[in-house]
Fold each of these.
Amino acid sequence: MNESLQQKLQQKIDNKIKPTGALGMLETIALKAGVVQNTLSPKIVNPHIVVFAADHGIAATGLVNPYPQAVTAQMVLNFIQGGAAINVFCKQNYIALAVADAGVNFIFDESLPLIHAKIKMGTANYLHENAMIAAEVHLAMEKGKNIVADIADTGCNTIGFGEMGIGNTSSAALIMHHLLQLPLTACAGRGTGVNDKQLQQKIDTLQAVSDFHQLQKATISVYELLGKIGGLEIAMMAGAYLEAARQNMLIVVDGFIATAALLIARAISEAVLSFCIFAHASDEQGHRTMLQHLNARPLLQLGMRLGEGTGAALAIPLIRSAVAFVNEMASFEAAGVSDKE
């Protein structure tokens, strides 16, 4: 970290025509943006959100999700057609949107406006076997890195990640369960809307998965963890986080599943956190605990649990406001207004 730059930027923020700290978290965001971009005049350029989509073998059992697995592919087609919440928010806020097929159990036409990055037709059912082999984990992460590198080449300096995959809150809960060594009752939530009976079935099923893969042990590497219980979209997102940090991008972190992928990336490189702005506190069980573990302060608390990157899309306008005030707001001296003595 450039401490001299950080001090100068903090002084610039403090000298704006306002009481010190009066813009609250916007001041924190402005400082982070300037430090990440190594400038006293940070900018948000060509922001993107990438939605990674994949299927999970366990979803076909119906034990952890109320919606059928086919919904993943149906929603990807909806993203392409512009009908989802993430499309609405990206269009409203002038954010570019890309959708990546990481491993959907469906063959998409090659002509569709989609990043065709499929590793395979969804993961195996991790209730009985490993979700992926090691080569698939590494390939997914590498493709995530390549996707972000290509987007960085367009001049983008701010990026957020979303996901789509029926059953992926279960994979995220298992990742949290292992990496934070917490009981599954503290990690597994209602996902796409299970009732009390279904939630208990989900927890019981995931406990059986944890026992089968011995997730209570602290000796599993994150690559092994992804191979055992991960999702292709989560692995691809983890790689994307690492590349975004390497590219000195501001990273806007979405909800529960996106934060689980960040836990994976952080285990590989702690430095990735210094590039992250946390968009919102999801209403999904466990997300607040994840945020507390990361000492993260989310911008928004709207009771959302949709995924898709929707929280990130809503936070990016606030980040734009933060860099706008630091660049355009007058200082006490320029405005001829007396500062406090």
Note: Residues 134-152 form the longest helix (19 residues).
Amino acid sequence: MNWDQIKGNWKQLKGKTQEQWGKLTDDDFDVIAGRRDQLAGKIQERYGIAKDEAERQVARWERSATDAWFAPDRPHERV
């Protein structure tokens, strides 16, 4: 799945994002608004990690995204 799909379905993906990065707040999600660079920045800020590590985490999460994340009537795949 590419980032354009993630951005377009950002509200649906909030739960999946919170599963991955539980320290992100509702206000953080409002600021991020589906923007990849903002997500990496907030992860960096909340977890106190380097920018390149935050970018790696976002890239790994992005690669794990599947269409099943958007289908509420189908079982979700484990990541």
Note: The chain has a mean pLDDT of 87.
